[in-house]
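Table S2 (text version). Query chain:
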Amino acid sequence: MLEVKDATIAVAGRTLATGLSFIANDGQITCITGPEGSGKTVMLRTLMGFLPVGSGFVSVDGELLTVLSAPDFRKLMVYLPQQMQLLGHQLTPPEAIIPSAADYAVWNPLLPTAVKAEAPRPLSADAIFRLACQTLGQATERSIIIADEPAALLTPELARQMLQLLRSQADAGRTVLIASRRQLLIEHSDQVIELVKSEE
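Corresponding structure-token output:
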């Protein structure tokens, strides 16, 4: 279970959300949605502990998540980035090459301290889905799944299969938290948190 209570989410001096509260429960899919630029990815980074909340708190199974405690909590999480090619080295045979970088650069490549390297080549829709299946299959001991736009580059059929995959993870008792603008995923989530793009 992951809880957000009265949280202010901000990045680079721009406030994206204030007074945000919700609980992403075990056994459910929680979808964060909103227009482009509304802060969905920033929200995921905050929930993984890469960015602090401005006020309020984030907790995992009742324990406070901070930037300092986050590395331990991330051991409970499996992450599917929007740029799935960052994990392409896990495919057999490999279909992409990941740059040499610290683990946190994969989790959050836009962190100022992340190693800058040439991005790996894009993957096909089939490879993206296969990699998602493989990544989740190799992390069965992790209780929280966080996925950033997991169906954005998939065909309609593969998007349905992705939804089934995520639903099966929730049915197994895991907490599934996604950021998506794909209507199929929004409609079939148990809880939808909608972010509104703030004025510049």
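Notes on Table S2: The beta strands are 2-11, 14-24, 29-33, 55-60, 63-65, 77-80, 144-148, 175-179, 191-194. The chain is about 25% helix and 25% strand.
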